[in-house]
């Protein structure tokens, strides 16, 4: 048997999606390694990162997939979504177009992902309040319409990052356990 699998009770796959440069890779590096990078290297994405999360008496290994920049070419394939139980759908609160594109991302999720996938909508870069283009109320009301969890995050200042991932993993755990 594989000791890698034995050490946890559940292994969950989740994906990060959203337009290019909204902060997906930095949200993941903040969650997985507590790192933030000022420079963006869209084509040098890691494939995925792991983190173990204790929920009650169960140990969950969360495997979070990041794109390697394919979203720039609208080239995310169905294999990226395969087996994913959760998604963090990210927009940039300082770029309205990334919010407008959420409908497209939700459409893609419905096409490729499982219907009971736990989706958390994240308005990232909340630290850049001087250049905000999307209000928190707009994020909230879209989330309500589409039945998503929602929060605003800052990968840069480490605001709500842990909470966002834990909400997703907790939601999956509720369905799976
Ligand atoms: P991705 O293409 O969605 O993976 O986005 P990246 O994680 O590569 O981030 C794109 C750019 O936005 C980088 O220059 C990051 O430093 C910056 N960035 C990411 N998250 C934040 C944040 O919360 N606040 C600020 N101010 N910048 C951020
Ligand atoms: Mg990236």
Automatic annotation (TrEMBL):
It is a lipid-anchor. The chain holds residues 2 to 178 of 218 of the full protein. GO terms for cellular component: plasma membrane. It comes from Olea europaea subsp. europaea. Belongs to the small GTPase superfamily. Rab family. One of its GO terms (molecular function) is GTP binding. Its main location: membrane. The keyword NADP does not apply. This is Ras-related RABA6a-like. It is found in: Cell membrane. Keywords: GTP-binding, Lipoprotein, Membrane, Nucleotide-binding, Prenylation. The keyword Cytoplasm does not apply.
